[in-house]
Amino acid sequence: MAGRHFDEWQVGDKLTHEIRRTVTEADNLFFTVMTHNPQPLHLDVEAAKESEFGQILVNGTYTFSLMVGLSVGDTTLGTLVANLGYDKLVMPKPVFIGDTLHATSEVIALRESKSRPDTGIVTFLHEAVNQRGEVVCRCERSALLKKKG
Fold it and tell me: What are the TM regions of this chain, as residue ranges (predicted)?
């Protein structure tokens, strides 16, 4: 499904994205290594066992990236000019290997672009939710979208 244009959104629109993903050890390992993050909580099983979590903790930037990625097909695919910013990023619960995540999105603001009349800014509240219904990541994303006209 292609994303929506600016003029197809209304404040209060809510979506539960159908795509889900179970986080694997390989996902966490590859992302952590690719981003040069040496945090033992993400890479070292023995160090992670000694932490308050007792197991490998999934890299938070992977969780954030997955959350946004799960939303793209329904929100901005093919209509995005640029992501303008991510605000109020929080991770209220940890993510572990084997957790299955899905994402939700809500439009919390709309604004016509002053400098580009063929576009507008949509602000989404994205949330990643695990299989227990716990929000594990949340942020606001401002996206510059094309208008349909």
Answer: none
Nearest 10 degrees: Cα torsion 76, 82, 85, 91: 40
Specify the pTM.
0.95
Domain ranges within the chain, ordered by starting residue: 4-144
Structure tokens that stand for 4 in this block: 């929506």
Residues ≥6 apart with Cβ < 8 Å to 4: 74, 75, 79, 145
Half-sphere exposure (Cβ direction) of 137: Cα atoms closer than 13 Å: 26
Tens of pLDDT, residue by residue over 43-76, are 999 999 999 999 999 999 999 999 999 999 999 9
Q: Which numeric CATH code is attached to 4-144?
A: 3.10.129.10
